[in-house]
Amino acid sequence: MIKAIKGTKDLLPSDAPRWHYLESVVKNIFSKFNYKEIRTPVFEVTSLFARSIGEETDIVGKEMYTFEDKGGTSVTLKPEMTAGVVRAFIEHSLGAQQSLNKLFYISPMFRQERPQAGRLRQFHQFGGEAIGSSSPLLDGELIQIAYDILKALGLKDLTVKINSLGVPETRENYKNLLREFLKDKKDKLSEDSRKRFDKNILRIFDSKIESDQKLLEGAPMLIENLDEESEKDFELVKEYLTKVNIPFEVDPKLVRGLDYYTKTTFEIISGSVGAQSALLGGGRYDLLVEQLGGKPTPAVGFAAGMERILLACENENSFTVDESAIDVYLIRIDKELEMTVCEIASGLRRAGLNIDCDYLQRSVKAQMREANKFKARFALFVGGEEFEQGNLNLKNMESGEQQNIPLDDINRIINLIKA
Ligand code: HAM
Asked: Could you read off the pLDDT of 160-171 as tens digits, one per residue?
């Protein structure tokens, strides 16, 4: 038997109501802040990701699904959305039409990571990107959107972490400070961290290894060495969050795993999902548009892992959704009325009702079982003596109340059901 690829997941009909609910909350809250939806292709040329996320990152170095298409072009299944959104922003001159573009998305992503709870190879993100303003109030707005979505889903065990990575010059100066601090300790670092020492020293803070963290004790922190502008902006982000009642922690070690960030970075962590606890992450990326060939345009955004969020919701039992019920199940009493049932069903559907009926020649009793299974609000009996007298029998499944309605007065049935 052929099985789904490791790290991918089928979303079955029984999963769909929870996904629909999550998607509706996402769309609803983004539209409150006037964000418009953008959809970009599932694959892009590989260099787009290498140039934006960074050659030395785990994503580009180890995790991308990259292959040559038949024309010999190297293409990659998108591991994240920001690069594609910025590519589309430049390609379609969105900045010329609208000075601030506030965009949101819901899309599958692909990363060849080791699968575990909350970590998949095909997963889904929703996210937002605001391209065209350097205002730190927009950083605040995006954190608020992210937080409001998680709260609307009923999640409680949340920690908002924020940090600032400063402007590139600050960061370069700081990297030298850190290099100086770690120079004599380099040999004691783990192999991974030693590699990072040379290639991407900030990421040493991400190390999960205790001895690495011990060696970092007393290290100078970037947040204490910020340039004036980044510091001023960071203060405004904090003020915004305070004004809109979002509790947060400043985490000087929050460096993020993608290279395009400048100034504010943030994550929201859940205490109820185990090791893969980052429900979402984001930050400012003021230089990326220019790096990818556009006019200098500041921007900020975030993306959230939908599987992880649903896992947190499940563990916290934070919301329940009713399985969608149908309005009417048509019950055919006489075998020869099959086509008549289809005709009546069709009229009711075109009047806007959700209808189902039997296609397996089941007995009346079995058809009633189906009606119950689908939580039909009404059963409509077609056949028997009533039908011979020109009537249909409508049963309210909740109250048990039944009434005969003339076949030529279908509107009465519709009104009763819609009432
Ligand atoms: P990221 O931190 O790489 O950022 O991913 C964002 C979120 O996607 C994570 O916090 C996590 O919830 C989810 N995620 C990542 N990898 C996996 C996986 N393998 N399985 C399940 N969920 C996963 C970005 O992607 C940036 N593009 C965010 C951003 C947007 N920054 C600015 N704008």
From this structure: 999 999 999 999
